[in-house]
């Protein structure tokens, strides 16, 4: 009895799973939509859409709607760090580091929309730097180690506004964490900052962005508080990068969107099957016989 009940339960569970997957697949039915970069599976667009139609950029943007997604930016970055130790009765001690590196940033898309103009999103930015120069009281110093680096992490909220589909201006306040292996010490900063950024479209999927970050930090985390405490520390960063996205298309761009016709594949003609020589000779004789009366009539 127990085995029979267990087997019935298994059969019922399998039937429910099959029905659930079938219903889910029916909801996810897609139509094939031709875009300017190839054929892909996409959601339904207006009723007048017919299979084989190459959609315009406005139709593609309308089709995508305001769906939630992630955007990815990357590029090169430059940083300048200033640390000051106050002195009584003489000039302050000022250290300045110059660094160069690369950054990667991930941003949400359509996280929150305030009205029709301001978008609110979340972002997280990572940067890896190499210090190529540093000074003490504006006097250049010589490093004694070759393996030096800095790691920068900046995250917060992004407020963006688009102007005429050509320029998107963003303000990004957030928290800042910075670690650096210096020539003599390990620095660990924690603070807050503000980033300003401008983005312009290059093509329907590529965008160019430029921006800057300013942070005010506490540079006395860890054991550095006992060795070399700092009274003030701030950092400037400048970045130059790109964004590529399939989920957020640009309605206007310097390289206009041009739908291309689908690629046609050349199909080779089928070769006739090989027949016997006798059949070929008979066909040749019949062809010559048919030509004789025609010549006689002429």
Could you characterize the architecture of this molecule?
There is one protein chain. It contains four helices and twelve strands. It has 298 residues and is an alpha+beta fold. The radius of gyration is 34 Å and the shape is elongated. The C terminus is likely disordered.
Task: Summarize the helices and strands and which ones pair or pack.
Elements: H1 2-27, E1 31-35, E2 38-42, H2 57-64, E3 69-85, E4 93-109, E5 112-114, E6 118-136, E7 139-140, E8 149-163, E9 167-181, E10 186-201, E11 206-218, H3 224-227, E12 232-244, H4 277-297
Antiparallel strand pairs: 1-2, 3-4, 3-12, 4-6, 5-6, 6-7, 6-8, 8-9, 9-10, 10-11, 11-12
What's a concise summary of this model?
This protein is α+β, with helices and mostly antiparallel strands. It contains 4 helices and 12 strands; from the N terminus they run αββαβββββββββαβα.
């Amino acid at each position: 009895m127990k085995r029979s009940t267990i087997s019935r339960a298994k059969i019922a569970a399998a039937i429910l799973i099959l029905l659930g997957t079938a219903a889910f697949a029916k909801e996810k039915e897609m139509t094939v939509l031709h875009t300017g970069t190839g054929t892909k599976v996409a959601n339904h667009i207006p009723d007048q859409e017919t299979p084989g139609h190459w959609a315009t950029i406005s139709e593609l943007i309308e089709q995508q709607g305001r769906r939630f997604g992630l955007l990815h930016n990357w590029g090169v970055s430059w940083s300048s760090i200033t640390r000051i130790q106050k002195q009584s009765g003489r000039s302050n001690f000022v250290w300045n580091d110059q660094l160069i590196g690369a950054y990667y940033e991930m941003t949400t898309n359509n996280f929150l929309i305030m009205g029709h103009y301001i978008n609110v999103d979340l972002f997280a930015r990572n940067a890896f730097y190499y210090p190529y120069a540093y000074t003490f009281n504006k006097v250049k110093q010589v490093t004694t180690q070759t393996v030096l680096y800095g790691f920068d992490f900046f995250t917060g909220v992004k407020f963006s506004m688009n102007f005429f589909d050509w320029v998107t201006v963003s303000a990004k306040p957030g928290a800042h964490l910075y670690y650096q292996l210096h020539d003599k010490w390990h620095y660990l900063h924690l603070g807050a900052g503000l980033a300003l950024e401008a983005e312009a479209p290059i093509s329907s999927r590529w965008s160019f962005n430029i921006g800057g970050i300013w942070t005010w930090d506490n540079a006395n985390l860890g054991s550095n508080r006992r060795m070399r405490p700092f009274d003030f520390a701030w950092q400037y960063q400048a970045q130059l990068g790109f964004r590529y996205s399939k989920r957020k298309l640009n309605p206007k761009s310097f390289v206009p969107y041009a739908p291309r016709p689908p690629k046609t594949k050349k199909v080779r003609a089928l070769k006739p099957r090989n027949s016997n020589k006798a059949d070929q000779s008979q066909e040749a004789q019949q062809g010559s016989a048919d030509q004789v009366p025609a010549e006689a009539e002429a």
